[in-house]
TrEMBL record, chain A:
Bilayer topology term: Multi-pass membrane protein
Enzyme Commission identifier(s): 7.1.1.-
Protein location: Cell membrane; Endomembrane system; Membrane
Species, as recorded: Streptomyces toxytricini
Name assigned to this protein: NADH-quinone oxidoreductase subunit N
Protein family per UniProt: Belongs to the complex I subunit 2 family.
Boundaries of every NADH:quinone oxidoreductase/Mrp antiporter transmembrane domain copy: 181-487
InterPro entries xref list: NADH-Q_OxRdtase_suN/2, ND/Mrp_TM
Regions crossing the membrane: 31-50, 62-83, 103-122, 157-178, 184-205, 217-241, 272-297, 309-330, 342-361, 368-389, 395-416, 437-456, 476-501, 513-535
Coiled coil: none
Length: 551, 646
């Protein structure tokens, strides 16, 4: 009885307390709905894994993922249409998440890219059926040791790793928050939320499992390493500004802060805190976009991960990470522009050149695309450095264009197979154009887009980025960019020459006929590539309207 | 009525599309469809002509605007037509002669298994040629210009299994490209000068433009005309173009396409009027070509090549007249039309002779054919009388007016040009009489058909066996009827046009007309023409009528031998252009290999080497990667701090 009374007493005490002592968090659920939908789907997906019989999981998971991504995209469009990309842009969730033009544009891009990527996750017609069960790109049972009896038993039983769908949903949720994060802690949490599922996804390839696991471990180790740097940078910035909120830090950097307390006045003068902290946070983001010298993980992980995951990761991670980078540089550190611009110049130049040069001698198509993605990160950095509205616009456009080309290209890679699974060694692609002209032609379109040949989205994007950079006073950067584009064009065209002008090998790979799922992915990729190449203006305008960050 | 103009082009274009895409199903009826659509085009043309006649002289220009092809600010490219008296004349000539030659081809190409395709090409040619003369701007004209070039290429090389035909087609195409460059440069100059290339604004503002610019445009247009109309120095392709089937030679390489250059000059009269230098060059080109072609025509034993030389020469007359300015425009076109009749008739006659003679083309192996092929003989004979300018026939009126106009140019130029034209008339009489005598008169010099090896090389329509003696016979009705119709044109057209100045009154509103300053009376010129005509005929009679013609050609004088080689035009081109071009390319290739490739390959090799070395950094150990990240971060921080310090 007495305990009950005591409890009652506590309640009464709580009720009597002044309301402003414990402010109830004010959450704008509607504005966060895209993320919430995806997180909800991820949690539902886990429940599905727990309660739905094994046979039924695949269709339910695919449906859940597709429905969640589609409705989240609809929510993004709804928010954008109702003005949240423009005049109604604001910071939601107690200053943690920005809902503005860049955030919504990037979220829409991530959702669409994830949608077509999920189609390739769900593809089950490429490999021959094992023991009468259709199989996808993922291991029968990720936990079983490669080559063990338990693995054989799992294959025989027809197990499949349908957990990849909720994992992908968690990753997407993190990526949605990442470019919208408006304080450093949210940024870090979002980073981990999308990184951890990706580490796992990298490890679950059906073929070459050891390589896949090796890739995952490398990715995890290096990812953790870079997270540590990032976290240290956050700590230093907090030490400098006394806040993790973007706006507050920006005010301190600019010297326009309203609340000046003695502790802050003490640290504010210490620019080393600011500069080192900013550089460390920058490094964490550069790791995610794959900029040199933080790129070393990219080729190994791209090669080892299951190809659908590689496509998803290459496209969506890059979009999210560049979104976060843009927000950091444009919202938090614009006052530091004269410090970070020269450094970023160097990073962009090294990234463009190294990516293009090292790609020249690659012999594996997935590694080739990995180095290509590094070079592209350099091109996008050139747009980031412009520090103008046009720069943001061009980067947004480039990211949208690049995401679909990448997913499409990796989807084509899944089709070219021999007895050992995907035939990724370039020598096996010789003469592909003679045997499978359509597949080779589609891949050629993607390669031309990567190379930035006119009438493809790659050209429009590269043009926009270089134009913004040149107008932003980075003419030398543009020259380097064009030189690296020329070097890069060499290895893209070399693959086209290999496909169309070499004699096919007798024991060459075959091109699998995919289900409508992968076909949709590739068709969307081609369509976006051509539409953005032929009529880019509408989308450039769209990106232009979405290029203002809320502060 | 204006809305019918597009149909003129659309009918044959439809025919070409159906025949070329329709496949073998149309093999049996395709030639009828092609002929019908050509006739339809002529019918529409005739209806428009009747309508035009019903209007006043100033109200005769019809326009039709189909759509804007490239509607950009400051650059309007319209698909629009303009049908005035000048275009109307061409429409009737092209579709009329074109229809007749379609009919003729039904018989001529009867044994050819690719007849459907042939008619498709013919229709394509008609469509392009009509587009050329109906366009209301230079850009659309250029489309038609290239279109007839394509059709000409396809038809010259129609018997592509013969290497000579394939080569001739290629040669025609290449030489024409030189002229086409001229036209495209002229159009670009027009655009920069006038800001448009529609006829009306360009020609209306030509008077306010500097003479230098007009001369440049005029010379470029002349270059274009030289290519298409086989004028010196771009004349070399026409003789070889005779490798095509004879109806093609008649339609494209005698009556219509080769006159496109004359059309271009007359259409651009306002530009040439403002550029006396360009005009003089035009007249000189015409005068040189008319002698050149005539001399070549004298020496050729191949009946079609002799006629080709004659075509060159007659177009020379037209270009000469066009170069005289308003004094000559009308007569250039008038001669063009009458020439269209009699030269087409002559070619069809030649085709008929070849048809009867196992496709033999060497006139030295003809002889005495008048008794075996009476219809061909009479129609060819009337064409012959017309071309040499026998009094009362078409050529008499049209050529005579050109010679008069040349004298009327005035001054020394007038005397020189007039004398050249007069000399040309004498040579024309000589070589045409020679053709006539060698073919239809004298004793039979027929030879058995060549043996099997050579037979593979002759036209597949032949249907004869090797070693067989020819059995000359009259050609079928489908071939003779067009010849008869054209013979009527050869006889009466000139008189109809000239008496009462009908043609002059008809065209004058478009081209303008000046009488000029004739130093001698028209009667004097006519009498002089008659006199040189008689001399030419008499010499030919003395050489080929009274004496037997040897079957193998005698060695001949130096001039004869040069003329047989087309006055060394190919040798000249070979030595100067081909050899020169080869030397140029060889030295360019040398520079490319040693210098450019050296730089390129060196760069590529160094990039590749760098790539190979950088690749080794990617050693697969996560620890190395971490070190690189750590080092990178250190550099990043150091650089940031350094920036602040600086």
């Amino acid at each position: 009885m007495s305990t009950a009374t005591a409890a009652h007493g506590l309640w009464a005490l709580a009720a009597q307390a002044p309301v402003d002592r414990i402010p109830a968090p004010h959450i704008e659920y509607a504005q966060l709905s895209p993320t919430l939908i995806v997180v909800g789907a991820a949690i539902l997906g886990i429940l599905v894994e727990a309660f739905v019989p094994r046979r039924g999981r695949y269709p339910v998971q695919v449906f859940l993922a597709v429905a969640a991504l589609a409705s989240a995209f609809a929510a993004v469009v709804g928010l954008a249409v109702s003005g949240h990309a423009g005049e109604k842009a604001q910071i939601a969730a107690m200053g943690a998440v920005a809902v503005d033009g860049p955030a919504l544009f990037l979220q829409g891009t991530i959702l669409l890219a994830s949608l077509v990527a999920v189609f390739t996750f769900a593809e089950r017609r490429l490999d021959p059926a094992a023991h009468g069960n259709r199989v996808d790109s993922f291991a029968a049972q990720a936990a079983s040791v490669p080559g063990s009896d338990s693995e054989k038993a799992a294959v025989k039983a027809g197990f499949t790793t349908t957990e990849v769908f909720p994992l992908a949903m968690f990753a997407v949720a993190g990526m949605l928050i990442f470019p919208a994060a408006n304080d450093l802690l949210t940024l870090f949490v979002a980073l981990e939320v999308f990184s951890l599922p990706l580490y796992l996804l990298c490890a679950v390839a059906r073929r070459h499992r050891l390589m896949s696991q090796e890739a995952a471990v490398k990715y995890f180790l290096l990812g953790a390493f870079s997270s540590a740097f990032l976290l240290f940078g956050i700590a230093l910035l907090y030490g400098y500004a006394g806040s993790v909120s973007y706006a507050a830090i920006a005010d301190v950097v600019d010297g326009t802060t309203a609340h000046m307390d003695p502790a802050l006045a003490d640290t504010m003068g210490n620019d080393a805190l600011l500069l080192i902290g900013g550089a460390l946070v920058l490094m964490g983001l550069l790791f995610k976009v794959g900029a040199v010298p933080f790129h070393m993980w990219t080729p190994d992980v791209y090669q080892g991960a299951p190809t659908p995951v590689t496509g998803f990761m290459a496209a969506a991670t890059k979009v999210a990470a560049f979104g976060a980078l843009l927000r950091l540089l444009y919202v938090v550190l614009p006052g530091l522009r004269w410090d970070w611009r020269p450094v970023m110049w160097g990073v962009a130049i090294v990234t463009m050149l190294a990516g293009a040069v090292i790609a020249v001698t690659q012999t594996d198509v997935k590694r080739l695309l990995a180095y290509s993605s590094i070079a592209h990160a350099g091109f996008i950095l050139a747009g980031v450095i412009a520090t103008s509205a046009e720069g943001v616009q061009s980067v947004l456009f480039y990211l949208g264009a690049y995401a679909f080309v990448t997913i499409g290209a990796f989807a084509v890679v899944t089709l070219v197979r021999d007895a050992g699974g995907e035939a990724t060694h370039l020598s096996k692609w010789a003469g592909l154009g003679r045997r499978s002209p359509l597949t080779a032609a589609v891949f050629a379109v993607f390669l031309l887009a990567f190379a930035g040949i006119p009438l493809t989205s790659g050209f429009s994007g590269k043009f926009a980025v270089f134009k913004a950079a040149a107008e932003g006073g980075a003419g030398a950067l543009v020259v380097v960019g064009v030189i690296s584009s020329a070097i890069a064009a060499f290895f893209y065209i070399r693959v086209i020459v290999l496909m169309f002008f070499s004699e096919p090998k007798a024991d060459g790979p075959t091109v699998a006929v995919p289900s409508p799922l992968t076909m949709t992915t590739i068709a969307v990729g081609v369509a976006v590539t051509l539409v953005l190449g032929l009529a880019p203006q509408y989308f450039l305008d769209l990106a232009g309207q979405a290029s203002t960050f809320v502060r | 009525m204006e809305n019918l103009i597009a149909l003129l082009v659309a009918a044959p274009l439809l025919g070409a599309a159906v025949l070329l895409c329709g496949g073998r199903r149309l093999d049996r009826a395709g030639h009828w469809l092609g002929t019908l659509l050509a006739a339809a085009s002529f019918g529409i043309g005739a209806a428009l002509f009747a309508d035009m006649l019903g209007r006043g002289a100033d109200d005769r220009t019809m326009r039709q605007h189909l759509y804007s092809w490239i509607p950009v600010e400051g650059f309007q490219a319209d698909i629009a037509f303009q049908l005035d008296q000048l275009s109307m004349t061409f429409v009737l000539l092209i579709s009329g002669v074109g229809t007749l030659i379609h009919v003729y081809s039904i018989g001529y190409m009867e044994h050819d298994e690719r007849r459907r395709r042939f008619f498709g090409y013919l229709n394509l040619f008609l469509a392009a040629m009509l587009l050329l003369v109906l366009a209301d701007n230079y850009l659309l004209l250029y489309v038609g210009w290239e279109g007839v070039g394509l059709a000409s290429y396809l038809l010259i090389g129609f018997w592509q299994h013969k290497p000579s035909a394939a080569t001739a087609a290629k040669k025609a195409f290449l030489v024409n490209r030189v002229g086409d460059m001229g036209l495209s440069i002229a159009i670009m100059l027009m655009f920069t000068t006038f800001g448009t290339f529609a006829f009306r604004p360009v020609l209306a503002s030509a008077g306010e433009t500097s003479e230098g610019m007009l001369t440049a445009i005029g010379l470029m247009l002349l270059l274009a005309a030289c290519g298409k109309s086989a004028q010196v120095p771009l004349q070399s392709w026409l003789g070889d173009a005779m490798e095509g089937p004879t109806p093609v030679s008649a339609l494209i390489h005698a009556a219509t396409m080769v006159t496109a250059g004359v059309y271009l000059i007359v259409r651009s009269g306002a530009i040439f009027n403002g550029a006396p230098d360009a005009q003089l060059v035009t007249a000189i080109v015409g005068a040189v070509t008319l002698l050149f072609g005539a001399v070549v025509g004298c020496a050729k034993d191949d009946i079609k090549k002799a006629l080709a030389g004659s075509t060159m020469s007659q177009i020379g007359y037209m270009v000469l007249a066009a170069g005289l300015g308003p004094i000559g425009y009308v007569f250039a076109i008038m001669h063009l039309v009458t020439h269209g009749f009699f030269k087409a008739g002559l070619f069809l006659g030649a085709g008929s002779v070849m048809h009867g003679m196992n496709d033999e083309v060497d006139m030295r192996k003809y002889g005495g054919l008048r008794r075996y092929m009476p219809v061909t003989f009479v129609t060819f004979g009337l064409g012959y009388l017309a071309i040499i300018g026998f009094p009362g026939l078409s050529g008499f009126f049209s050529k005579d007016r050109i010679i008069e106009a040349a004298f009327a140019k005035g001054g020394t130029e007038g005397w020189i040009l007039g004398s050249v034209a007069l000399l040309g008339a004498a040579i024309t009489a000589f070589y045409m009489t020679r053709v006539m005598l060698m073919t239809f008169f004298g004793e039979k010099r027929w030879q058995p058909a060549p043996d099997a090896d050579a037979a593979a090389d002759v036209e597949p329509s032949a249907g004869h066996r090797p070693g067989e003696m020819p059995h000359p016979h009259e050609s079928p009705k489908s071939m003779t009827v067009p010849m008869i119709v054209l013979a009527f044109g050869s006889v009466f057209a000139g008189g109809f046009f000239a008496i009462g100045d009908r043609f002059l009154n008809w065209l004058e509103p478009v081209t303008g007309y000046e009488h000029g300053h004739p130093p001698v009376s028209a009667l004097t010129v006519t009498l002089a023409t008659m006199a040189v005509l008689a001399v030419g005929v008499a010499i030919a009679w003395a050489m080929y009528g009274r004496r037997p013609v040897p079957v193998t050609a005698p060695r001949g004088s130096l001039l004869t031998r040069a003329a047989r080689r087309d006055l060394l035009q190919d040798d000249f081109n070979h030595v100067v252009l081909v050899r020169g071009g080869e030397h140029l390319t060889r030295s360019l290739v040398y520079v490319d290999h040693s210098l450019v490739d050296g730089v390129v390959n060196g760069t590529a090799a160094s990039v590749g080497g760098l790539s190979g070395r950088l690749r080794k950094l990617q050693n697969g150990y996560a620890r190395s990667y971490a070190v690189s990240m750590f080092g990178g971060t250190a550099i990043l921080i150091a650089a940031t701090l350094l920036m602040r310090a600086v």
